[in-house]
Structures are given as C-alpha cells and as structure tokens.
Write a structure and sequence with these properties.
mainly alpha, two-stranded antiparallel ribbon, 2 strands, 47% helix, globular
Length: 130
C-alpha cells in the first residue's frame, strides 16, 4: 500500500479530526513532514499530495476521498489565501513534530482545532524544553 492509499484509509476511518497534527499517527505525520521538506527545499521527488488533501479537506470541512468525482469544487477569494492556509497547516504539523520529539511544549488549550488550524491569527502558547 503506497502513502496516498494509507492516507485515504486513515482519513476514511478517522475523519477530519484525524487531520489535526496532534491526532495523527507517526507515519502520516512523517509523510506530511517529508512533503513539507520537499516544498521548502524545491525538491520534485515527492509530490505534496497528502498535505494538499489535508489542507483542502479541512478548508472544505469534508474529507476529500479518492472517489471525489464531480463533488470537488473549492473556491478561494485570493490565490494567497490558499498559500496562507498551507503555511498555517505546515507550521502546525512542524510544531507537533517538535512537540513529539520533546523540543517544545505546547499548552493543551492552544493545540490546533478544526476551526483554527488554518487561521493566521491562531494563538499558540509554547515553551522550549531545555
């Protein structure tokens, strides 16, 4: 089973809440981190499919599945809006990774929610672990 098939199987089982970084199993989190790294370093050996699907699903409020058909219609006011949502999601995933490897601590009441993970004004309380 390839990475995208694993992603579809996972999201079918877990739904939107499974796309919050703190709820992701390590394999999905690491796949998205690989995609983030590929984007940030302009590599073309990895396509950011799970990252794209996660952001679009959260924005739409519905899991995008492999059998999406004609139901796939998403509108953004400005092209920058999509990029801003990507950046916010990338940041949340990266912070979750840092939390898991115990480099930072994030206050549980400021962990991302489906309502605020894509929002640039989301406040996060964190501390660096020495």
């Amino acid at each position: 089973m390839n990475d995208i098939e694993k992603y579809f199987k996972y999201t079918k089982k877990e739904g939107l809440r499974g796309l919050l970084p703190q709820n992701m199993p390590d394999n999905i989190l690491h796949r998205i981190l690989e995609e983030i790294d590929a984007i940030d370093t302009n590599r073309d050996d990895i396509f950011a499919s799970t990252l794209l699907l996660a952001v679009l699903s959260i924005h739409k409020g519905k899991i995008i599945t492999e059998d999406v058909g004609d139901d796939m219609s998403i509108t953004f006011e400005l092209p920058e809006e999509l990029m801003e949502k990507f950046e916010n999601y990338k940041l949340a995933v990266s912070m979750e990774y840092m939390r898991r490897i115990q480099k930072i601590s994030i206050s549980s009441n400021t962990l991302p929610t489906l309502d605020n993970i894509l929002d640039s004004s989301r406040k996060v309380e964190l501390s660096v672990i020495a």
